[in-house]
Automatic annotation (TrEMBL):
Coiled-coil segments: 38-93
SUPFAM superfamilies: OMPA-like (SSF56925)
Domain of life: Bacteria
InterPro entries, per the entry: OMP/PagP_B-barrel (IPR011250)
The protein, known as: Outer membrane protein beta-barrel domain-containing protein
Keyword Transmembrane set for record: no
Residues spanning the membrane: none
Lineage: Bacteria, Pseudomonadati, Pseudomonadota, Gammaproteobacteria, Methylococcales
Keywords: Coiled coil, Signal
Endpoints of the signal sequence: 1-28
Length: 289
């Protein structure tokens, strides 16, 4: 009886021990499974976070590139707008000028001062003052001197003027009529063509110079050699101011160096030639077109 009780106790103890081990093993297996699932979730979360970070980086780069493209497009648009504005301004601003001149004229020596001319006798050597009127136009060739500078432009000028130096006695008529006094008007017509450099960096005030120019002069009465045409060189300087719109007012000074085509080679020295060197100084009014 005692033996049976002892055996029963051993069986019960073993059963209890087995029953205790089974839950522990199950708990261990459950803990392992839970840990593995958590690690998997954390790994997936890390992957998602990496992907989100990569997406943010890609989005930031795309935004930066988009911003740069927008800035480039805006800069290009501003350039186009500026060019259009300049072109529109150039179309609205008339760069050519039609002008009308007038003022004081002076010959270096009066007609007949050297002595007897066939058609003019003038006892006063200093009688060489006169007046002039004329007109011309400037045509702009380049507004930046062909890319050399923005402060100066180059125009081409064509101009004509009529000069009046008073009167002189017609010696030829006097000699053949026995004292009949005939007075001739002493006049000169000049046609010139020249480059004109204008300085455009002073707003509405625009100085200019003519470094050289060709002048053709026609005198009346003719010289003792019965010639009337004399070429020469012209120099000039002046300034103009925009009064309103395309209306300009200016002052100018010009000097003419001429050749000796009107001089003659008199063998006995009685008849003398004509000196057409001289200057003009006056004002002009110009209209842009």
């Amino acid at each position: 009886m005692i033996k049976n009780s002892t055996g029963m106790a051993a069986v019960v103890t073993a059963a209890v021990a087995v029953a205790g081990l089974v839950p522990q093993q199950a708990m261990a297996e459950s803990h392992y499974k839970g840990t593995s699932a958590q690690a998997d979730i954390e790994r997936r979360l890390q992957m998602m976070e990496d992907e989100m970070r990569a997406l943010r980086s890609e989005l930031a780069r795309a935004r930066s590139e988009s911003r740069e493209n927008v800035e480039k497009m805006e800069a290009q648009q501003e350039k186009v707008d500026r060019q259009l504005a300049e072109a529109d301004k150039g179309e609205k601003e008339h760069r050519d000028l039609l002008f009308f001149r007038g003022g004081y004229a002076k010959m270096e020596h009066g007609r007949g001062y050297k002595g007897l001319e066939t058609l003019v006798w003038n006892a006063d050597e200093n009688d060489n003052d006169g007046w002039y009127v004329g007109a011309g136009f400037d045509h702009e060739l380049t507004d930046d001197f062909w890319g050399l500078t923005d402060i100066a432009s180059l125009d081409g000028e064509v101009m004509f003027e009529y000069k009046n130096f008073g009167t002189g006695e017609n010696f030829l008529v006097d000699a053949f009529t026995g004292g009949e006094v005939i007075e001739n008007k002493i006049t000169q017509f000049t046609l010139t063509a020249a480059p004109k450099i204008k300085f455009n960096n002073m707003g509405n005030f625009r100085p200019w110079i003519i470094p050289f120019g060709l002048g053709i002069h026609v005198i009346s009465p003719p010289s003792s050699g019965v010639t009337v045409l004399n070429p020469g060189l012209m120099l000039g300087a002046g300034a103009e101011y925009k009064i309103w719109g395309d209306l300009w007012a200016g002052l100018d000074f010009r000097y003419h160096f001429t050749g000796d085509d009107l001089d003659i080679k008199s063998k006995n020295g009685v008849l003398k030639g004509v000196d057409t060197d001289g200057l003009t100084a006056g004002a002009y009014l110009g209209f842009g077109f």
